[in-house]
Amino acid sequence: MTTRWLFGDQLGPHFVDDHRGPLLMVESTGVFRRRRFHRAKAHLVLSAMRHRAAELGDRLTYVQAETYAEVVRPLASAGDVEVVHPTSYAALGLVERLGCTVLPPRGFATAREDFERWAEGRRGKRLLMEDFYRRARQAHGVLLDGGEPAGGQWNFDHENRQPPPKGADTLGVTEPWWPGEDDIDAQVREDLDRWERDGEVSFIGRDGPRIFPATRRQALRALDHFVEHRLPEFGAHEDAILEGDPWMAHSLVSAPMNLGLLDPLEVVERAEEAYRSGAAPIESVEGFVRQVIGWRDYVWHVYWHMGDGYRRENALAARQRIPQWFAELDGDATDARCLSHTLDRVAEHGWVHHIPRLMVLGSYALQRGWAPAQVTDWFHRAFVDGYDWVMVPNIVGMSQHADGGQMMTKPYTSGGAYINTMSDHCGSCRFDPKVRVGEDACPFSAGYWWFLDRHRERFEGNHRMSRAVRGLDRLKDLAELVEQEDARGNRAP
Fold it and tell me: Which PANTHER family did the record assign (predicted)?
């Protein structure tokens, strides 16, 4: 009888509901020896795997081993192991070398074949996420009224870019639902502690009480709570940052979704129900839907469409190493409040929302010229919801503009003015976002012009960047700024 091998991100019912035979799951300690993951991420993944094993009982064989291959090879040699399409090139290569039967991917709204047909039909035009997203909405009948977009427009992004409320410490929304821990979590923590004591593995970040769902039941509770209590407030301030409110109105369901505990279509259906019942406005619901079956699916498909070599793209020839203070999540190393606070949050939770990731961490890496492969690896290891398929397009294609514009028309970076507008960081920072040169110079404001100066020729013909590039000629202190930033290099600001 055929055995179905489940990876640790294939934990929901939709990965087994068509299979009546035996199941296999392998907990590979070698994965943690090879790379330094966030401790909270290691805890979450192992907890989720062991919880799933407990749920499936005798139907599943759960094996702890150094490598996947030593467990699977004897079974696969008999030709009776199948696996749902893995989520990375490395894992896919492994299962193919072992001779496993590979089933189509699950856990995404749009099939790979459908995306490839769409991409081929573009006839060389850029694979715009917005076009893909609209097509997905139509294909799945999401937020449509008589074939037209609910609310009269496809995209409410303009309404969803408001800065934080003036003078507010928090958005004032209900906190997310938090799961409780159990004996399985205690055993995972004990094992991780022992592995560290024995020098077998090491981690970055801290492992506090688990805050992300590790079971299907917990994931559904978290989703329902978000939709009922937080989704109505999600849209307007989804790009805003408040130091006293790490969660804002975000869903925090990316981690359980990427573990396979939730299917994206059930997530957007639940959100649409809130809109149809009048419990949540279209702006919030559309913004959330766009994240789930728009951006998330789009990133998944770009990962496979571009090929495994895409991860090595480096169009801006960025070669600087990530400095140790950043790699180790040392927020105390820098006086730049936005960097310090964000690194502290990542150290504590293994999570911050998309704007600190893109416009603080990613933007700083881009300005400093850090090697995109290193940045990709760091994001993969440091975030609880980070996987290879997630981070390669998000970092190479979007954050670091390393693909030269294949995915995004412009690099996502800014001076300190953006951070000052969209957050409350700058008010408690010793640097001034309006100052470029000198002791009070904001590292982002200086870094932005430093970055543009280094890449002037590349971006002066970019219709979305040409105006900014021309602004270099108006800077009377440009030479002094470049000298200042060249000297600063990778030193913590």
Answer: SLR1343 PROTEIN
Could you report how far apart the first and last alpha carbons of the chain are, in Å? 60
The C-alpha atoms of residue 392 and residue 390 are separated, in whole angstroms, by 6
User: Residue 1 has what pLDDT?
Assistant: 86
Provide the phi-psi class of 322: left if phi over 0, else alpha when psi is between -120 and 50, else beta. beta
Instruction: Give the model confidence (pLDDT) of 436-469 as tens digits.
Output: 999 999 999 999 999 999 999 999 999 999 999 9
Confidence of residue 76 (pLDDT cuts 50, 70, 90): confident
Cβ(433)–Cβ(442) below 8 Å: yes
pLDDT grade for 473, boundaries at 50, 70 and 90: very high
